[in-house]
Every structure is written in structure tokens, then in C-alpha cells.
Amino acid sequence: MPPAAPSPILRRRRLGIELRRLREAAGLTGDQVIERIGWASASKLSRLENGRSRPDPQDVGDLLDLYGADQAVHDELLGITNEAGDMRGWLKNFPVMTQQQRSWAELEAGCAEISEYNPVLVPGLLQTPGYAQLRIVSASQVDESAGEPEPGEPETEVQARLARQSLLTREPHAPRYTAVLEEAALGRRAGPPEVLHEQLVQLCELALLPNVTLHVLLRDTPIGNWYLPPTAFSVYRFADPLDPETLAIEGGFTDVMSTESITLNRYKVVFEWLCTAALNASDTLSWLIEATGRLTEAAPPSTVAFGPATAPTQRRRDSGRLTDR
Question: By the 8 A CB rule, do 232 and 252 touch?
């Protein structure tokens, strides 16, 4: 089975970076390009270079001719252009997902490596159905209080989230996945004992996968020189080294994406600090097993409240609302 194909959104970003590089190498400004090609809108080039619009092969071909691209570059970028425009075919892989959920699935597609940290939640790729449903239902209460439209059925939202978790067990091209889990995300504030028990059992199972590395960060452990990470974030590196490494920052009610190298490097440094401060993979597994044991009497597996557990190979993920994706 080949690696998952990069999403059209990722292809657009890659195309935009390459078009900007070629324009700058040709010594042309955006205004000069617009004038020479005869486009009516000055924003058209900007949208293409920033990956914000579906590219037209004729437009891309005109740009490549203007920039003097050789035949190999011409063929490569027109191939990327076709991939960037094929949204309908790609979305057939994710028929139940909302647009917000797809934005995360698009980042995960074609990933070689994912690094995640969340200060208060178990990351979505690791969540059980019960834990996911608790997060979705509790977040919907905020939407209702704020006068937002009625959310969809929680069961549908859960299934959409789970629809992405097979990424971690994709054979033979599963990405390397590393997560730092705060102890607080597995504490009693996160849910009733039966839900936490189910979640801990799943984390023990996932920690045994060869491509998954989990670190638990104990609540009283200092990070670096008393650094405190202000928000959840994820870093995505892709199988194609020319696709831009991407940072996703979860900030309250808004998510932010960035491919800017300076910002990315800062968060990669922070992630290294988090991994160093947290328990190593072996000690994390021991901690998870012990924590599961402490909850066993309070939450026998048969009392799980949110439906039958699903095997890890059948689970995926959803972005959800708020910072809960």
C-alpha cells in the first residue's frame, strides 16, 4: 500500500512556494507579473502564491513560461497543479467529515512525522469514543451559551473524529507519531472514572506501536528554565521533503497554521524541552499501566458509558470545536 497522497490543500501550498521562488529568481515583482500576463486582478497572483485558491493549469502554465522554467520544472509543477485541483476525488476518503475536520485530515495526509502537545486534553488521534464524546458535548455547551447554531449529533461528531485514527496503524507507511501528554489531561477533571479507564487502556495499547512514542509530563516537573507552554500545538513533517513543514497552533476558539521557519523552529525547540522534561517512553508506559490499575476498581471495563470500545486500528480523529481536535 503506498503512502497516503498529500491533500489538495498541501499541494496548493507547495505550488505557491515554488511559484514565488521562480518569480523571485526571474527578478519580477507581483505587479510586473500581473501586467505582463494581463490578469485583471492583482490579488490573483497573491492567492496562488499563498495557496489560497484552486489553481488553473492554464494560469500556472502562463506563469511558468514567463519565468522561463525548464521542461522538467514545468512538468512537475503542472502535475502538482492537477493534484491541487482534485478536491472531489480526495474528499471521498473522508465522507463524514466537516470542513473543520478535513482541515486537520489534510495536514495528516502524506505525513512522515507528527509531534503534538496539549496542556489539557488527550490529542484527538489518541482519544477513545467515550473521551471524544465528553469533549464534544462539553464544548457544545459553550456554543449554546454563546448563541451559536445547534451543533450536529454528538455520535456523528465522534464517528468523524474516529474516522482518522487509522493513520497510526496504516501499513506500511504509518507516520512517526510523538505526543507529550500532561498528567492533568488524564486526571479526574477530564471525565468520570470509567471514561478515563478506557482512555488509559487505549494509551497503553497505542504506546506499544512501533511508530508511536508517548511521554507523560508530570504536573510538578519544570520545563527548561521554568518555561510554561502557553498553548497546544502540533508540527507536521511530510513524506515529500519539498512539501512545507507545517505548524498548527490551537489558541482558544481559533486555530492558526504557519509554515514560517522562524516560528516553526521556536515550537520545535519547545517540543524538545517538553520531551526532555517528560517521562521517557518506557517510564511513560509504566506510569500508564499503574494509573490504569488505580482506576480498575472504580471503573470496570463493562461500565464504560459511551458505547463499545473500538479497536485502535478502527479509530481516527476529528478537529471538534474550541481547541479540542
Answer: no
pLDDT value at position 290?
Answer: 94
pLDDT tens-digit readout, 88-135: 666 666 666 666 667 777 778 778 999 999 998 999 899 999 998 888
Bridge partners, 214 (sequence order):
179
Closest CA relative to residue 85, chosen from 8, 20, 15, 142: 8
Phi, psi of 217 (to 5 degrees): -100, 110
Tell me the Ramachandran region of residue 41: left when phi exceeds 0, alpha when psi lies from -120 to 50, beta otherwise. beta
pTM of the predicted model as reported, rounded to 2 decimal places: 0.76
Does pLDDT of 170 surpass 60?
yes
Radius of gyration of the chain (CA): 22
DSSP bridge pairs for 113: 176, 237
From the number of C-beta atoms within 10 Å of its C-beta (0-12, 13-18, 19+), residue 232 rates as buried
H helix or E strand, kind and range, residue 236: strand 232-238
